[in-house]
Amino acid sequence: MTRFLFFFSLLLLFLAPMVPGRDTITLRSELLSFTPADYHIALVTDERVDKSLGRWHTAANAPAVPVDLAGGTAEGIEQFIRQNLRQNTKLRAVAMRLSECQISERIKGNRVDGTIAFAVSFELVRNSDDEAIPVKLTDYRTRAQYTRPANQTGVIEQSLRQSVVAALRTFDNYMKKQGSQDSRLATKLVIKFNEYVRNRNNDTVFYSPDRPLTWADFQAPPRRGSRYAAEINPNFAYQGHSRVTNGVVELTLTLKTFMLKSGSWTTPVALNPYSLNHEQRHFDISRIITERFKNKLNPDSLSIEDYNSNVQYQFIESYREMSRMQELYDAETNHGLNVAAQARWNARIDADLKMYGIRN
Asked: Does 90 map to a domain?
């Protein structure tokens, strides 16, 4: 009985299909003629679902067998780069993401027709709060076709190597051309502020220390049912544009503090210098908040990769601050009826205007 079981086991082993081995390709050493000036390829990752290189034919009457770069596709490419591309690892890091690398072959007799599809993307790897943040830069894609004898596979290694080298060279040219103009590659941020003070004979009055409010600026009809003698609706806003020069993002913000004549009104009882001063102080508060908003915006508080969102966030926070300060001003002065409180606010506002250089 024991002999029968042993014989049966040998029979199963003999009848079981043999799993074909995986052939490997090693990219031949080829010292590249260019040197990255402001980056280095820090890593190569394989983003493909199927991580294999494909199958190739090595004999006329044999089935195709699996093949891959030695150590794996991404590892093989990374090793080639490490050995053949002169790099300074202290420069900013770039990741090479492999999205396609596939061999497809058809055999007819001793002739093999094949295609190599190769595609990668390059990402800048920024470090923020100990977290690596990838920034997509550019893609490269190519497709090579070849015909070869079944027993000669050298053209495949050559085509793969040429695809990798072409991708690296194309990316290096991209960095040389775009590196100083692309905001994603900028290394520094500077901010310039402009204050819009041009006043024309229209509905909008822009804040200017040389152009105080007059009662003629209050042109809306009085709000029906209001218990106040006058009302002003001051506001502030900004417009921005940026450009990149020599790797530096130059952000220009034009700040506008303004009131609308059609949104401000008065009544005959308020037509006196004291009441006009109370409304002017509302306008002054908006101008002070504009300065505080400006002070929140500095290169240390803004990130190069997301400075627009940073500015918008600070604007919203400053707008809320303006609303709170306007409400506090009216509450403490009782809308100007508390003369002593009004005097204290006059002094406080004048001090802030002087501190920010708005008035002497």
From this structure: yes
Enumerate the H helices of the chain as residue ranges.
2-15, 73-84, 154-178, 273-296, 307-333, 339-355
Statement to judge: residues 143 and 240 lie in one domain = no
Token pair recorded at residue 160: 């793969």
Q: Cα dihedral sign for 273, 279, 282, 284?
A: negative
Which element (helix H / strand E) includes 329?
helix 307-333
Q: How confident is the model at residue 8 (pLDDT cuts 50, 70, 90)?
A: very low
Q: For residue range 227-263, list pLDDT tens digits in order.
A: 999 999 999 999 999 999 888 999 999 999 999 999 9
Split into its structural domains, the chain has a count of: 2
**Which helix (H) or strand (E) covers residue 328, if one does?**
helix 307-333
| pLDDT at residue 201, rounded to an integer | 79
Structure tokens at 302: 């803004």
Q: Within a domain: residue 6? A: no
Q: Do 305 and 192 fall into the same domain?
A: yes
Q: Which of 34, 26, 76 is nearest to 171 (CA)?
A: 34
What confidence tens digit (pLDDT) does each residue in 29-43 have?
A: 999 999 999 999 999
C-alpha 195/C-alpha 176 separation (Å) is 36
> Residues 138-164: what's their mean pLDDT?
96
Q: Are residues 33 and 163 in the same domain?
A: yes
- Quickly tell me which residue has 């079944």 as its tokens: 150
Cα separation, 175 vs 181, in Å, equals 10
